Amino acid sequence: MAKAPVLTPQAEDFPRWYQDLINKAELADNGPVRGTMVIRPYGYGLWERMQQDMDLRIKESGAQNAYFPLFIPQSYLTREAEHVEGFAPELAVVTHGGGKQLEEPVVVRPTSETIINEYFSKWVQSYRDLPLLINQWANVVRWEMRPRLFLRTSEFLWQEGHTAHATYEDARDYAAHIHRNVYEAFMRDVLAIDVVPGRKTAKERFAGAINTLTLEAMMGDGKALQMGTSHELGQNFAKAFDTTYLSKEGKQELVWQTSWGSTTRMIGALVMSHGDDNGLRVPPRLAHIQVVVMAIKGDDTVVAKVREIGDRLTAAGIRVKVDDRTDTPFGRRAVDWELKGIPVRVEIGPRDLENGTAMVARRIAGGKEPVALDALEALLPKLLEEDQELLLTQSRERRESRTSEVATLEEAAEVAVGGGWARIPWADLGPEGEEKLGEQSVSVRCLVAEDGSVPVADDAPGTVAIVARSY
Amino acid sequence: MAKAPVLTPQAEDFPRWYQDLINKAELADNGPVRGTMVIRPYGYGLWERMQQDMDLRIKESGAQNAYFPLFIPQSYLTREAEHVEGFAPELAVVTHGGGKQLEEPVVVRPTSETIINEYFSKWVQSYRDLPLLINQWANVVRWEMRPRLFLRTSEFLWQEGHTAHATYEDARDYAAHIHRNVYEAFMRDVLAIDVVPGRKTAKERFAGAINTLTLEAMMGDGKALQMGTSHELGQNFAKAFDTTYLSKEGKQELVWQTSWGSTTRMIGALVMSHGDDNGLRVPPRLAHIQVVVMAIKGDDTVVAKVREIGDRLTAAGIRVKVDDRTDTPFGRRAVDWELKGIPVRVEIGPRDLENGTAMVARRIAGGKEPVALDALEALLPKLLEEDQELLLTQSRERRESRTSEVATLEEAAEVAVGGGWARIPWADLGPEGEEKLGEQSVSVRCLVAEDGSVPVADDAPGTVAIVARSY
């Protein structure tokens, strides 16, 4: 008898599969206010690991954490013209505080360029204060009309970096450093997602930026997801907030700035990149539970052994969860760990103990076989490394197999609508072609150079546009 | 010639000294919206260390982190009558989102009992789901009429724990565990603040709780500061949100709950507990910079040596900052590190190098003397441990020397108004006496037992009230 599937199969209805998985793997729930989200402990555990790893990389890049207020005076937003135009439709506005109507309404931060520049303009006095490299971990609010858990939520969690530099070159290089050495390295090496680094077209740029660098990934259904962006802000905010410094030569100069962000959307990317019809598959380097050691039955010897092996594996540096909840049927627990995407299950019952073995079940590579108990410490780290690589390989292979080189706008649209990525010379598409693609809900995800590097300008020779539908 | 003091002396004007210190040690700035705060990198570094340490203790207590939405439907607040009465005057209300007026206004969370109970009521089904132990690190907003940086801000950062239990006893014991084994242990062992654990009187209880446990500390001016609270919520929120579970016996029962919080206010406590006329003094176990190694002059040999020693001390497990910014005068840098309260400065100039020594200046114990360079690794950890203990001793001695046993309400008020703590039998004061004290801005900070333990009830025999002015 075939089991009823736990999740709607991907092939049947990908968005429904996604929603099912988020729900059944206990990653998140919808919040009571439209578009908001409750991140459940298992989902938040993934976010905590992302934070820890990224925070280290950000600090190694010289930035320090700080915290700026949630509430921004409405007037700040309007100082940078493009910025306010970009964000005005998404703002949440507080009109009452402490039982009274406020004299000036305040907005809940959609991003913090404006309020941070207000302080940069006070803190930066001389060239000695530069570069000023600040990051914050915070919640932001952008009112969302078509919310989807993790991907588009009215409130989300993120880190936002904000920096000020003495020269254009220094700012440009720092934005590029974050783009490649922090974001791309993290997404590739830890999330095991084969992201494509590129630059956004003028149309897709961050509101207020002179250049937006992006990382785009292909999801399981062939659509693109923007994974993180790093912006060169030029002197736009510096002008609006008068953020200047006294140069070595004794002249008052405007600073050059960057900002860069990555969000809880990365959890959605993880799901849609690595998930399958049985649930999530978490890359071992990210996983806060890499191995679950399960007692099949509530036999005292088994439970004692399971705990002992849990301790041994923990001592060996593996992140382990012991599952000895034997009052819940084994099958139900196994399905749950599979749904949650724990890379390896070590299953132990009375018969295994007699043989001195455990069943090792692999969520990522697949397969299940008996392993001698005293061989686990040596074997598991190897399996986990293999699994990590396999996920990245699968991510790359999907992107490659579903990407087509095309020559015309029509072909590009056809590929994108069919669930793939099209590569087309930007010179053959251009801003007009980009507009036309928009009519079919297709967009230019990013511009790349022929050799896979990031072009220095939109019109650099050999620039290729990656065209796709996107989340 | 006497130097002009960097800070207003404590004895002259304590609140002004506090404000000066926060500003000059670069801990925080006032935000643009009244009552909000910008936490600068040095101040945020203190908070990060607090978070790391507390988070570990919270996880060891079995709680898992999660994240609930910032926005709460206004109607949720009103479901628990005392709760809404307590918080209504402090709410920030969002009336517009995405360019439209909202059908139901939403409040920015002042605390999350209501929204969390909405989900607990879905997640908790059977006794197997209990206890449910959740914590979140988040920002909250309580509109503040008389803001003061870190102590009272309209937005602050905190952790809030929320738990559900099958029995009254289990909830009570968990609230007590957090109170003593997490909060008190952290504040005493890491913050080096001699906190007093006690229970709040009915008047001072959290809105919606049946019992509030508190930790009170004496600040440098003899006033009290509430450092953290742990509440038994009884079944108040469970009733309001219908949070029930199926018991082993197959009956539907209401859960018993706790909540507990500690905030960025602890940074203010640190300043007012350990600060002196030269600035902050950071307990070494908390300090993210324990030792600063300073180059006195920009001599190449000196700078190289300073960096080498920095690396050596880092390798020895000390949290070190190398200060080789020799284009800024040495004296100004030394005053800055003193202001910031770095426990130990290792100062190295050309003459020290000739002698193979460094000057070791101690911010907490005081004094400055030459130490052989190769003796630093062995010596510094000892000095840091001494400093940690000294701060706790000074905190305890201040509290003891400024606490008086009194017999009447009048005496209690006199002690409190004079900048001390009064201890008076609760049976002699009672709720009526408590009301009268309020007229002189004096309050009962907490109730303690004669042996220093926490009384099991307000009217337990031998209960003593601690009476003081407070922040």
From TrEMBL, chains A, B:
- Record keywords, A-Z: Aminoacyl-tRNA synthetase, ATP-binding, Cytoplasm, Ligase, Nucleotide-binding, Protein biosynthesis
Subcellular compartments: Cytoplasm
Q: Which GO terms describe its molecular function?
A: ATP binding; proline-tRNA ligase activity
The record's listing under InterPro entries reads: aa-tRNA-synt_IIb (IPR002314), aa-tRNA-synth_II (IPR006195), aa-tRNA-synth_II/BPL/LPL (IPR045864), Anticodon-bd (IPR004154), Anticodon-bd_dom_sf (IPR036621), Pro-tRNA-ligase_IIa (IPR002316), Pro-tRNA-ligase_IIa_arc-type (IPR004499), Pro-tRNA_ligase_II_C (IPR016061)
Top-rank EC class of the record's enzyme: ligase
Q: Which residues form the Aminoacyl-transfer RNA synthetases class-II family profile domain?
A: 34-283
Which residues lie in coiled coils?
none
**What Enzyme Commission number(s) appear in the record?**
6.1.1.15
Task: Report which reactions are catalysed by this protein.
Answer: tRNA(Pro) + L-proline + ATP = L-prolyl-tRNA(Pro) + AMP + diphosphate
Q: Which Gene Ontology CC terms are recorded? A: aminoacyl-tRNA synthetase multienzyme complex; cytoplasm
Output the GO biological process annotations, alphabetical, semicolon-separated. Answer: prolyl-tRNA aminoacylation
UniProt keyword Nucleus, yes or no: no
Q: What is its main location?
A: cytoplasm
| The keyword ATP-binding is annotated on this UniProt entry | yes
Family (UniProt): Belongs to the class-II aminoacyl-tRNA synthetase family. ProS type 3 subfamily.
The entry's free-text remark on domains says: Consists of three domains: the N-terminal catalytic domain, the anticodon-binding domain and the C-terminal extension.
Q: How does it assemble?
A: Homodimer.
**Biological function:** Catalyzes the attachment of proline to tRNA(Pro) in a two-step reaction: proline is first activated by ATP to form Pro-AMP and then transferred to the acceptor end of tRNA(Pro).
Q: What is this protein called?
A: Proline--tRNA ligase
